[in-house]
């Protein structure tokens, strides 16, 4: 991200949304989030600091951050590898391998990004597998829901030639008809309400059977 420009990080993981300096009541230019990593409170993680910098350079730069001038670093950052398959080319809408339908994929390896998204795809794979074992027909969740939008994206909606891991976002949801003329925050609110209604309808037959 930093390679894109000097301002990039201030509008990404260091964006100071909703934070103010209690001394001046002003919003800071950028912030660094620290997450407690042990019970004693003596070890803190700098969130979002995966980097390709050499260790000595990381120490030098991090100590220029106000408050970290004398920090002792227990470990330094590195880029983690995200291994995933080309799901749009390989998987069907029920997360089965097209060439070997007895195999299903779930979680991050399918090309979703994030803990919630990975758990969601795992949940869907489990429901699909359970239904198949019971001889039941199960439809994928509607694309108007977060479950359905993400599933549709990784199993065909994305371009297999340029496929990259994706978080759930409103850009994956099908738009409203032009006649609806819903914009801005109202559009996202309307999409959320539509998703809840459609998800309840999708779950209703299963709840009745249970």
Report on this structure.
The chain is globular, with a radius of gyration of 22 Å. The strands form 2 sheets. It has a two-stranded antiparallel ribbon with strand order 1-2. A two-stranded antiparallel ribbon has the order 3-4. It has 5 helices and 4 strands. It is mainly alpha-helical. About 35% of the residues lie in helices and about 5% in strands. It starts with about 35 loop residues before the first strand and ends with a helix.
In short:
The protein has 210 residues and is mostly helical.
Give the secondary structure arrangement, pairings included.
Elements: E1 34-36, E2 44-46, H1 55-62, H2 87-90, E3 96-97, E4 100-104, H3 115-133, H4 146-157, H5 184-209
Antiparallel strand pairs: 1-2, 3-4
Number of helices: 5
pLDDT averaged residue by residue: 88
Walk across the major sheet and give the strand order.
1-2
Helix fraction by DSSP (H/I, runs of at least 4): 25-40%
What form results from the Cα inertia axes?
Answer: globular
| CATH level-1 class of the domain at 87-209 | Alpha Beta
Uncertain segments of ≥5 residues (pLDDT<50)? Answer: none
H/E topology pattern: EEHHEEHHH
Main beta sheet: 2 strands, antiparallel
User: Terminal Cα separation, in Å?
Assistant: 47 Å
| Structural Rg | 22 Å
């Amino acid at each position: 991200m930093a390679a894109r420009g000097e301002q990039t990080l201030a509008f990404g993981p260091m964006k100071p949304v909703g934070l103010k300096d209690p001394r001046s009541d002003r919003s800071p230019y950028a912030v660094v989030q620290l997450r407690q990593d042990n019970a004693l409170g003596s070890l803190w993680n700098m969130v979002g600091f995966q980097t390709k910098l050499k260790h000595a350079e990381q120490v030098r730069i991090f100590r220029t951050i106000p408050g970290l001038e004398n920090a002792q670093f227990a470990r330094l950052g590195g880029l983690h590898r995200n291994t995933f398959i080309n799901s749009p080319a390989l998987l069907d809408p029920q997360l089965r391998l097209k060439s070997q339908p007895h195999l299903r994929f779930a979680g991050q390896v399918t090309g979703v990004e994030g803990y919630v998204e990975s758990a969601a795809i795992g949940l869907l794979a489990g429901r699909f597998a359970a239904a198949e074992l019971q001889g039941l027909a199960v439809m994928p969740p509607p694309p108007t829901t977060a479950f359905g939008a993400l599933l549709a994206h990784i199993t065909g909606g994305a371009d297999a030639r340029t496929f990259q891991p994706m978080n759930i976002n409103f850009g994956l949801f099908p738009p409203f008809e032009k006649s609806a003329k819903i914009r801005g925050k109202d559009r996202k609110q309307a999409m959320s309400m539509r998703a809840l209604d459609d998800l309840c309808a999708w779950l209703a037959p299963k709840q009745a059977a249970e």
